[in-house]
Amino acid sequence: MSKLLLRNHAPDPAGRVHHVTPESAGWSCIGFDLYRLEEGMSVSGEDPDRETCLVFVAGRGAATVGGQEWAELGDRMSPFEDKRPYAIYLPQGTPWQVRATTALELAVCTAPGLNGGLPVRLIRPEDVAASVRGRGSNTRHVFDILPDSQPADSLLVVEVITPAGNWSSYPPHKHDADDGTAETQLEETYYHRIDPPQGFAFQRVYTDDRSLDEAMAVENGDLVMVPRGYHPVGAAHGYTGYYLNVMAGPRRAWHFNTAPEHRWLLAPG
């Protein structure tokens, strides 16, 4: 099995399914945890060196973050409900706790806190910009949770819905080199969900010289790590794809480079 693919599995006693650190991934920036909590379960954390974005993927929960409290957050029981998510941004050194008030799927996205000083920020659904990218069988629906136009030190966080039979993160693009406004160096994780859940998608991660070239069958709840290279996703016919992207790197900007041989696909028409 690919070293880039982490399979879905039953939660541990704390409710955690996925646990990625810079050390485990062999990279510099991104940390990612995915929790599936039963009603009444809690999870908490605090990191003196890393900023965090808590994303309520599905379900509802109460949150206490840096002394601020919210009795219940979350407006969808599935990421396929065509509703934008709730999220919370918190700077390094901020304690947090989330208690599930229903079954709750919670993503904990972290990256280096470089400057600090930013306030805790509740990101409501109405704060999340929605857009449609592509055309035809390359159409996908995007929810920008923490884009580079909003303040943070390192993190970029986005959700994407790929309609059944469509392609996403396509034409193939990469962001693994620092080249001004042409490209930024960003690590990335993809947390995948599939609807209906017995379906699958495909993701390929590859470089120009093919020193990295892996094609993966991705099932509901799997996680893919993208340290470098191009990383397109294809959703199987009959099955809608969702993924939560976390990106971070030395410079907080999203500039990508489309594979030269596929740039003709970007031509108007």
From TrEMBL:
Q: What is its EC number?
A: 5.3.1.30
Name the top EC class: isomerase
- Superkingdom classification of source: Bacteria
InterPro entries membership:
Deoxy-glucuronate_isom_IolB, KduI/IolB_isomerase, RmlC-like_jellyroll, RmlC_Cupin_sf
| Keywords in alphabetical order | Isomerase
GO BP annotations listed:
inositol catabolic process
Recorded GO molecular functions are: 5-deoxy-D-glucuronate isomerase activity; glucuronate isomerase activity
* Cross-referenced Pfam families: KduI
NCBIfam families xref list: myo_inos_iolB
Identify this protein by name.
Answer: 5-deoxy-glucuronate isomerase
Origin species: Azospirillum lipoferum
